[in-house]
Amino acid sequence: MTNREQILKENEKLVEGFKKKYGYEKHMNPPIPDKFIHLGGEWSNGYIIESLRTAQQFVWIPVGLLEANGTLNGFDFNQQFGRRNYRGDDFSTDGFFEPLDKTLRKQIESIRKYGGFYVSRYIVSRDERNAYRGSCYTVRRVQKNVVPLVNKDWNQAKAISELIEVGLDVSSHLLYGAEYDSALEWVIESGVKSKKEVVQDSSKWGNYWNSVCKTRDLEKNIKKEWYTNGMYELAGNTQEWTQEHFGNYSIQRAIRGGSYRQFGSDNPAAARESKNKENFSHTIGFRVALLLR
Predict the structure, then answer these.
(1) pTM beyond cutoff 0.90
(2) pLDDT one-digit tens code per residue, 101-119
(3) What CATH architecture is 3-292?
(4) CA–CA separation, 153 and 214 (whole Å)
(5) Whole-angstrom distance, CA of residue 264 vs CA of residue 79
């Protein structure tokens, strides 16, 4: 058996395992919203769509069967779908939590209907060439002078996220912690990255500390290692605001992953930090998800 035949056989076995675990066909047939096109990839390795209206790009994240209460297996919402703790126990008990608000309830309904959801392929960015010509936000494509949108506090990030895609059939929102964790779980389950690479040290697949990309020419500097199941920069470049809360304080939110100013061993992809909503930094950006109706 040749190496290619062996790889194909292993991939077939992996996909069969996905089918058995996920249990039904919805996960394997991602919906394509109106005025979007399929750019490439399969459900098992990065199914990518692009908006014909805005040229934004999104990647399909399959999600396991959700119970009626919005969890994956019947456990309490905050302990199962919303707060995975990869550093220790399966689920966190360290003060982070996620209120089941109106949008997240709708997203859970959508996941139950379609078998997954779409997350932006890149960290939300701005095109420096059009920086003074009004709105220039984008879920970044690989081109010159397009860099992560930073120095936005949580409220600004949330407001901008809701402007990325606006329609009757689809809308966008700032990523929830539950969605971020589902993306990380998919990276692990698909075999693209090991749990150790996600939980302990993401340096090899993230642009950390001495790497380039933050404000450089992406056409020259973006690396294939940063690509995971259709997504770029889940590990590094900038940390990312999420809608996850910390403690009993209404002013604190969770930021995820590490930035280009950190080491991947200290702030791997699964890492959480708490920040005041009013905080902003050149090392914190954000990502969005789609809600399909």
Answers:
(1) no
(2) 899 889 988 988 898 999 9
(3) Alpha-Beta Complex (3.90)
(4) 18
(5) 26
Domain-by-domain residue ranges, the chain? 3-292
Tokens standing for residue 216: 């450089």
Cα–Cα dist 208/264, whole Å: 6
Give the CA radius of gyration of the chain. 18
CA distance 108 to 66: 8
Neighbours of 110 (CB within 10 A): 20
- Measured in residues, the chain has a length of 293
Q: Could you count the other beta carbons within 10 Å of the beta carbon of residue 254?
A: 26
- Give pLDDT tens digits for 244-256: 888 767 789 999 9
Amino acid making up residue 112: R
Residue 240 · residue 255 · CB < 8 Å: yes
What's the per-residue H, E or C state across 144-186?
CCEEECCCCCHHHHHHHHHHHCECCCEEEEECCHHHHHHHHHH
Instruction: State the Cα angle at 178 between 175 and 182, rounded to 5°.
Output: 95
Q: Could you tell me which residues are beta bridge partners of residue 249?
A: 246
For residue 187, which amino acid is it? Answer: V
Angle made by CA atoms 120, 126, 131, in degrees to the nearest 5: 160
Phi, psi of 282 (to 5 degrees): -75, 0
Structure tokens at 194: 């090991």
CA 122 – CA 51 distance, rounded (Å): 14
CB 31 within 8 A of CB 122: no
Quote helix, strand, coil % in the chain, to nearest 5: 30, 25, 45
